[in-house]
Every structure is written in structure tokens, then in C-alpha cells.
């Protein structure tokens, strides 16, 4: 009898991050994060409202509109963006519910590249590496520059495909 192929560690932990994302009730995006030291899983988290508070699926999103400079080469000078302020990001929840001592030298697997705020928090958390799947184009350049400045490994897994039972769509909306 042939043994099924064994997943490599990166795939295994990223799959767990995607499974954690299925707990999110955010109608806009489900994000999951996993903290790993060596090959030991230390914590999981997902994006959502604070505990005990109605989430976006119950109370609706709390959308704020902001204006940001348009990407270089665009005819417009400012672009209107919308974001939900009810939700705590998966990376923030991961930091809230894990101990600093456990984070020292650890790796964070996250379904989506961290936004600027989460990247700043992770850069100051003691971790040594961030592995993500989906790029967050808006913040990519400045987040990548911060990770390089902090000498943190910042990478994606080439050819990774999320587990089919997570309902993930790869395109950022």
C-alpha cells in the first residue's frame, strides 16, 4: 500500500492559517494567522469583532472612507478607499493572545500579507519571519521595506494552493 504524500511544513502551517480563517464572520475578507516556533504550533487567530461584541455579520460593517494618494502613473491624484473599523485583524488577535516569550524567534503564517499597521506590530513582536499567501498590493512596497530594514524574513510560498474547504478566493477585492 502506498503512503499518501506528506505535506511540507510551510504548506501544513499555511493550511492551518486558512482553516483558522474559516472562523471569521467578516463579510469582506476572512484572514487567519498562525504562530509557529520550530515545528510547534503556538497559537491561531482570525479577524473579527472583539469578543462579546456583535460582529459585522450581526451588526453590519463599520465602514470609514479615507482618501489616499493614487498609485504612481495614475491620472487621479487621490483615491477613495473604504475600510471596516469593527474588525480586529488576525495578526493583531494573534499578538493579543500569545506570549512575547513564545514569539521570540518564531514564524507567523498568515493568509494575507499584513497591512502596514499589522506589519509594524509584527516587526516589534519578536518574530523572525512572516509567511503569507495573498499580496496586499496597497501596502506591499512599504511593508517589504520595513521587513528588510528589520532583517525579518518576508516571503510567500510558491505554488501554494489553499485547502478547498476554506472557500477562499485568491483575488483581493
From TrEMBL:
Q: Which GO terms describe its molecular function?
A: dCMP deaminase activity; zinc ion binding
Give the matching Pfam families. Answer: dCMP_cyt_deam_1
- Which cofactors does it use? Zn(2+)
Q: Which family does it belong to?
A: Belongs to the cytidine and deoxycytidylate deaminase family.
Binding locations of Zn(2+): 89, 115, 118
GO BP annotations listed: pyrimidine nucleotide metabolic process
Organism lineage reads as: Bacteria, Bacillati, Bacillota, Bacilli, Bacillales
Active site positions, chain numbering: 91
Q: Which GO terms describe its cellular component?
A: cytoplasm
Q: Which UniProt keywords apply?
A: Hydrolase, Metal-binding, Zinc
Its protein name is: dCMP deaminase family protein
User: Which positions fall inside the CMP/dCMP-type deaminase domain?
Assistant: 8-154
Amino acid at each position: 500500500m502506498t503512503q499518501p504524500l506528506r505535506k511540507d511544513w510551510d504548506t501544513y502551517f499555511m493550511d492551518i492559517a486558512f482553516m483558522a480563517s474559516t472562523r471569521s464572520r467578516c463579510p469582506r475578507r476572512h484572514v487567519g494567522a498562525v504562530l509557529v516556533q520550530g515545528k510547534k504550533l503556538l497559537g491561531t487567530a482570525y479577524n473579527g469583532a472583539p469578543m462579546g461584541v456583535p460582529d459585522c455579520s450581526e451588526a453590519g460593517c463599520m465602514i470609514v472612507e479615507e482618501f489616499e494618494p493614487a498609485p504612481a502613473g495614475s491620472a487621479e491624484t487621490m483615491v477613495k478607499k473604504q475600510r471596516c473599523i469593527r474588525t480586529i485583524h488576525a495578526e493583531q488577535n494573534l499578538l493579543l493572545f500569545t506570549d512575547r516569550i513564545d514569539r521570540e524567534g518564531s514564524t507567523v503564517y498568515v493568509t494575507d500579507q499584513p497591512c502596514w499597521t499589522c506589519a509594524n506590530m509584527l516587526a516589534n513582536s519578536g518574530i523572525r519571519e512572516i509567511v503569507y499567501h495573498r499580496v496586499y498590493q496597497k501596502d506591499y512596497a512599504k511593508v517589504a521595506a520595513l521587513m528588510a530594514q528589520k532583517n525579518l524574513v518576508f516571503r510567500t510560498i510558491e505554488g501554494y494552493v489553499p485547502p478547498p474547504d476554506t472557500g477562499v478566493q485568491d483575488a483581493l477585492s
